[in-house]
Description:
Layout: H1 2-30, H2 49-54, H3 58-87
Amino acid sequence: MKQEIANWSFLIGGTIAVVSIVLKLILWLMLRSSERTSFLGSFIFWFSKIDIHDVESKRTKNVLYWSNVINFFFWFGIFFLIIGFINDTDPVEEIQPIKRKLQN
């Protein structure tokens, strides 16, 4: 039962995280270079309502809003991946030592 939960968690979490990364990349590329933050940093940084309200262009306002939504789903996917790693009960394959035959 735990392995089934782990498998579904890997599937759901991995799918959500990959889709979030692709969508975030598209949003990041939509911004002008002067408005961009670092791509990896955009997954950590959350924009407040004041930050979103104070921007000048409507495009940037939409990008900041959807960036927050995508961040939520990304971290939700990471949470599912962590649940999958905790519930994973498949045994780790042991490394078998190589026995070499002595040649006569």
